[in-house]
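Reader question, answered in our methods column.
A reader sent in the components of a multi-part assembly and asked whether the whole thing could be modeled at once rather than chain by chain. We filled in our standard form and ran it. Here is what they sent:
COMPLEX SIZE: two components
ENTRIES:
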Amino acid sequence: MSDQQSKENLSAWIDGELDHARASALPNQILESAEMRQSWSEWHLVGDLMRSTGVARRSTLTRRIVEQIEAEPLHHFPKNPQPRYGAGLWSGISGRTRLIYGSAVAAAVAFVAFVALAPQMHEHGFVEVLASAIPESVTLSQRPAPPVLLEDPRLRELLEAHGSMSIRPVSAEVR
Amino acid sequence: MIRCCARLILILSVGVTAGLLSQRVTAQQPDRSSEAFLARMQSAARALSFSGTFVHQQDSILHTSRITQIIDAKQSVTKVQALEGHLQEIIKTPHEMRIYLPERQVVKIDQTSYPRAAFPAVFVGAPEQILKNYEVVQGGSMRIADIDAVEVFFKPRQESRWPVRAWVDKKTSLVVKCQKLDAQGAVLEQIAFTQFSLLSKTDATSMGSGTANTNSLPLGVLTSSFTGVKDWTVRDASMVALAPAPSLKYRPETLKGFEVVGVYQRAAKSDAAPFSIRRYVLSDGIATVSVFVQSRSVAGPLTERVRRNGALTMLSREIQEAWVTVMGDIPPETLRQFAQTIEWKRSP
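And here is the structure of the entire assembly that came back:
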């Protein structure tokens, strides 16, 4: 698979638009390729900049990585592995050790995600952030335009009146 | 030798004292250059004719719109068209704002005499009020929508408000990008031009008279594009300014630097309530806070928990048979503390 194709798959996976067969191969590719890890980080950095409160999608991705690593069948690995130069990270590791490593990686990913998300989770404790009130199952391309709260016409009326004296030039109506 | 040292010490102490005094005098003087700079930013938004495309981002929600503003001796019109999602068009004149929603055949007309912020001026207050509440720091240069712009940082003098970062066209002083940040510097909300062009006097005049037919500018730019839509339902969203303005009871220390800049009201449809809605507007020059008071006869509170959407936060409380909803471009905790101190008594 070409690097370009791998990156396209990664992009589609982040958006939740990749089929199961190709998606199942991606966790290993991310772990094995420094370039893929770099792309993964960069795209998520861009995502973070675009939405400082996009907790839902990031937590979904983290969960997917953990699930992929845990769900991967052990019998794909040879019983007497021969270490090969340039082979994948998991090559040459016994099933049990691999399971331990897999859990460790999953824990590390979960830890990094927790550290990154902790301040926002704290904010969620007392502030409801409208933009993240969209269900996790909804992908970026399927996202509905109007945030839930704006469906209340009484609130839209007040938002519109308030917006007349702020940096918001567009009406809160039918966003 | 001793006499020589004493003389030296005396000279030094006089010098230091003079230096400190002159520094103090400088600090007490208003920052004339910043004041003039802010005044130029404000007048640019109110005096220039331009057209462009801009992106408005609130958290993860992005919207692209087109704006055309024509200002000449005869008129002052701003037209904003949503380029994504549902069709929507706003036409603003100094005395009126019309919001066209063609899919619902609704047009909202607001003739309230608000001191509206001229987009993209960012602020409504006078420069001296802004400088009282924000430290204005000029930063480096950056190109925005092919415009050579300079960064201006509005650092709040109190923690209870969002910092603001703007990029200003070096030639015209027009704001071409503006961000509201949280205390950690993360962008909560922003507006940025992606395409911008100043309109010449000839362009503006011909567009205003509806005779323009250049490649870049459509005909009838000052009127609604939805002339084909029939049977519009007209909704009056206007309020009346109250003078003298009735006072609002709250603890000022919860909203330092903010002043009530206007009180507006819409009459009640029946005699059961003195009004259907009243709005108090408070501002520190850049951020605004609205306090809406509605009769409790309207169903339920709007939002009993603090909610945030971009830089905007909101909260509702029930006080003395009224729903009081507070909306403001301020941090959630500030809004909550302020809302908790509001007192409201229904008029006898």
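What stands out: Helices of chain B lie at 2-28, 32-47, 127-133, 201-208, 332-341. The first strand of chain B starts at residue 50 and ends at 58.
Send us your own complexes using the same form.
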